[in-house]
Design goal:
Blueprint: E1 2-9, H1 17-21, H2 23-27, E2 35-40, E3 43-49, E4 63-65, E5 70-78, H3 81-90, H4 100-111, E6 121-129, E7 134-139, E8 148-152, E9 155-159, H5 162-168, H6 177-185, E10 201-202, E11 207-211, E12 217-221, H7 237-254, E13 262-265, H8 270-281, E14 288-294, H9 305-315, E15 318-324, H10 326-338, H11 348-359, E16 365-367, H12 372-375, H13 393-401, H14 406-409, H15 423-433, H16 440-452, H17 454-466, E17 471-473, H18 479-487, H19 490-494, H20 500-506, H21 512-515, H22 525-528, H23 532-543, H24 545-550, H25 555-563, H26 576-589
Pfam families: Asn_synthase (PF00733), GATase_7 (PF13537)
Organism: Micromonospora trifolii
Catalytic activity: L-aspartate + L-glutamine + ATP + H2O = L-asparagine + L-glutamate + AMP + diphosphate + H(+)
Length: 592
Amino acid sequence: MCGIGGEFRLDGAPPDLAAVERMLPALASRGPDGEGRWQQGPVALVHRRLRIIDLSDAGAQPMVDPELGLAMVFNGCIYNYRELRDELTAAGYSFRSTSDTEVILKAYHRWGTACVERFYGMFAFALIELATHTLVLARDRLGIKPLYLAEGPGRVRFASTLPALLAAGDVDTDLDPVALHHYMSFHSVVPPPRTILAGVRKLPPATVRVITADGRSTDTTYWRPEFTRAAAPAMSADEWQERLMAALRTAVRRRMVADVPVGVLLSGGLDSSLIVALLAEQGQTGLATFSIGFEAAAGESGDEFHYSDLMARHFDTDHQQIRIGAKRFVPAVHQAIAAMSEPMVSHDCVAFHLLSEEVSQRITVVQSGQGADEILAGYDWYPPMANVARADAVEAYARVFFDRRHDALGGHLAPEWMLDHDASLEFVAAHFAAAGADTALDAALRLDSLVMLVDDPVKRVDNMTMAWGLEARVPFLDHEVVELAAACPPSMKLAQGGKGVLKAASRGIVPDEVIDRPKGYFPVPAIRHLSGPLLDDVRDALTARPARERGLFRKDYLEELLDAPNARRTTLGSNALWQLGLLELWLQRIGV
């Protein structure tokens, strides 16, 4: 796991080395174990390293192979790199390291851009063909690893984080009105390629972009599950359960590939508990597990230690409870905001940031349970989609998921920021209209798995863990698990209140008390119920001079929220004031 950056010139000028060098400090937390830089012809590359595979200097980046005429920087992990290395060795390639980075170089030389289809893992990389000056950018199927881009006159810059591009300079920091509409309507999700800033874009997941020396650019989407039954044979409920559990066993085993110990973030929910159980089943002993809890607020509990402790005792893990008191909380909120590449309203960010800080002091790699709810229908907005006609799916989805409908948004955004069209509904409609997705629920799950999941929980985990040089791996987002879940009949996923097929498959592996417990979340009550110093910080941000000059929100709406900070909730129960405050806190943090 690492931080990458670079510049590719399209006008014959040399790259701006000073600008690229300025990216490195902004990437430092993603790679605390070393840094590297390389420049040749129209390209300059920089890299911050976190040593996970091949801890020697032979695995350092940027990695250059003069014989093959290739150079690259890479962020992520290719879990099947050893198998690919054996295949490439048999084909005549020789290796000077034991790193997965070198495997990508050789794989690209042998198979071209199609090499990504052979990778099991999470990755974002930039590769340059030295002879042709062709740049290849690629991102993994589920967008687990980020890649941001900023284009300017005669050049393209890229980096693992948006702040790294800002540090390089010369970025259009005007707000993107369409992205703002998505942020306010589409549950704070800004789908790719947009970000909230007009001058920064992100490479979509499952995409390879090839940019030639003359500036021509082509994108190839190399993976997209269909969410239909045609891709799977008719199977009984028991057979679906067996196939799902077999795929998860493989996914968990793959994610143990490392030259350092691997632990688990154990929330006490079914998803992370199942990872612990499967690792124990595979012979892991003394597994390091971690859970976090906060002080209660407004009568709402701030921890789920009962369930995580139960799991730790049941499987005899080396468990650590992390308790966060009030004095530590508010500073942690601002630290989490500083770690965000984009504004992320979920209060889980603070939990993951604090958890990662503690975990990184003991271990470098963890497995985490993100993704199960999106691929297996675990959220409460899925059951209302079950009996909706496919033709009515767009409106039904917007009704249960959108924070605000377009008409209502006119009463919240200042007139100059309002669009004359419903950009968020149009985006959902276009996504739902694509081929595949047999039912309304299939269409909702496809959108959430391929878009919402990537730009909310997945991005959240990457940003918060990498802020502390901690690598998080997500077995539920193994692409074979996602493909299987997509083909599974919706009724099996909705059973037992959601994730029914997973709950049934987990019987006898995970204690029933964990399987049958009420649905839980990372509880952070002090954000759901704003008060005290954090409310003061939100108020200050929304009334500060930059916010007044920006003028995003209607004055009467702001006053209404500030007068009753916890009265207004979005469709999915988030604090409406926090959504506005978080955006301004983030914009002011990055200096916009």
